[in-house]
Amino acid sequence: MQDDFPALTLEIMDLVGDKWTLLLVYTLGEGAMRFSELKRRASPISQKMLTQTLRGLERHGMVDRSVLPTAPPQVEYALTGLGRTFLSAASVICQWTKDNLEELQAARTHFDSARLAA
Amino acid sequence: MQDDFPALTLEIMDLVGDKWTLLLVYTLGEGAMRFSELKRRASPISQKMLTQTLRGLERHGMVDRSVLPTAPPQVEYALTGLGRTFLSAASVICQWTKDNLEELQAARTHFDSARLAA
DNA sequence: CCGAATCCTAGAAGATACTG
DNA sequence: CAGTATCTTCTAGGATTCGG
């Protein structure tokens, strides 16, 4: 896999290199959800960024969008199979981050105070 | 873990939410390396972004920087223990991306052509 | 209720020149 | 060799307004 790093990291950044994608994937991991509920759960995301991020996820085949034939219209979003396996993979990073929160915090504090002295 | 998503995703984006961090971590995963070699291997990164990204990694305790007492000075960068466990976690996403490249590509093509029609 | 369109600003990132 | 400093460009993302 070594030789594919550049291309793969570019692809990954294209997938989740923005501010909200990861949060939305995790939120949708709790179940299919409508636009407004998603907006509440992923607060403080703006409508614009919610729409924009959802379009990106849809484009990558990670999220399925279905318009319910009601009035007023309701739109439901759900992870696809691809989205679910992605969530599983992403959970590993999430768990790592949780497990190492204190060490990360300590490293930052140490680095910052050392820099302040200089 | 569910309730920690917002905070964790923010933390993750702080760690690897920029353009070059992931690539550098992967590159350093192949072994300790000097500035110039790193710059070559992570091409086309600029000196500025290389320095800046390395400082960030150092700050997070993921990379160790050591100045060799030679003339001209040589500086070697290496993953710390924390950096290595992070790399392991990140590899899962990397592998997922590799395994699903075709499906991702197909989803994008399909989405884009559907949009073009409209 | 869901989302498109527009405007605007902060910060990311590239290019270039210079230093111990 | 390994940076720092400055300048410019570009784009992500927030605020707001409007439409079906």
From TrEMBL, chains A, B:
Pfam families found in the cross-reference section: HxlR
PROSITE patterns according to UniProt: HTH_HXLR
Keyword Protein transport tagged: no
Residues of the HTH hxlR-type domain: 5-105
Keyword Transcription regulation attached: yes
Molecular-function annotations in GO: DNA binding
Listed SUPFAM superfamilies: Winged helix' DNA-binding domain
Gene3D superfamilies tied to this protein: Winged helix-like DNA-binding domain superfamily/Winged helix DNA-binding domain
Keyword annotations from UniProtKB, A to Z: DNA-binding, Transcription, Transcription regulation
Top-level division of the source organism's lineage: Bacteria
InterPro entries in the cross-refs: HTH_HxlR, WH-like_DNA-bd_sf, WH_DNA-bd_sf
Name the UniProt record assigns to this protein: Putative HTH-type transcriptional regulator YybR
Lineage start: Bacteria, Pseudomonadati, Pseudomonadota, Alphaproteobacteria, Sphingomonadales
